[in-house]
Design goal:
mainly alpha; 3-stranded antiparallel β-sheet; 38% helix; 8% strand; globular
Length: 167
């Protein structure tokens, strides 16, 4: 739990809404202690399952299943899901597709979103790091394009306060 609390991404959370009145992490944000060893042990089996599915031609789609602290913080969890997909054996490009066009296909929205093409809605981030080879961090965000308007990092930092400037 200490690693989750110390994650720099938590600086982007508003106030201390994720803490209980006693100042501790709210119970709903914690994995029960008795499940933690099971979750760690199951990781390699999950990787193997995903790898075999991908090799068999199953379309792998990235998606998060809940909010949390640190690496699971909403808005950050999906970009971090690409790394375990690569660890499971997907190519860097396939892991990026899992979070973009494959997710759009799973939602039956690939004709509208999921790739940058003429006629599609394309809100996206511009990163200084290569998302195919690097786990993206908030500090790597250079700009955001929303509805065709480019928002540079310095204006985003002003909108989100000191956490965005430090991240």
């Amino acid at each position: 739990m200490a690693r989750q609390l110390d994650q720099p991404d938590n600086a982007y959370l508003p106030g201390v809404a994720w803490r209980s009145r006693a100042g501790e992490v709210a119970g709903i944000m914690q994995m029960p202690g008795e499940l933690q060893p099971l979750a760690r042990a199951a990781r390699m089996r999950r990787h193997e399952f995903v790898r075999r599915c991908w090799q068999a031609g199953v379309r792998v789609t990235a998606g998060t299943d809940g909010a949390g602290l640190g690496r699971l913080l909403p808005g950050f969890g999906l970009q971090r899901e690409i790394v375990p997909l690569r660890e499971a054996g997907l190519s860097p490009f396939a892991s990026l597709q899992a979070a973009t066009i494959n997710a759009a296909r799973a939602l039956n929205l690939a004709d509208q979103i999921g790739s940058i093409e003429t006629g599609k809605a394309a809100d996206f981030g511009v990163w200084t790091a290569d998302p195919v080879t690097t786990a993206l961090r908030p500090a790597d965000l250079d700009a955001v394009v929303l509805a065709g308007v480019v928002h540079r990092r310095d204006t985003l930092a002003g909108a989100f306060g000191s956490a965005a400037r430090e991240g």
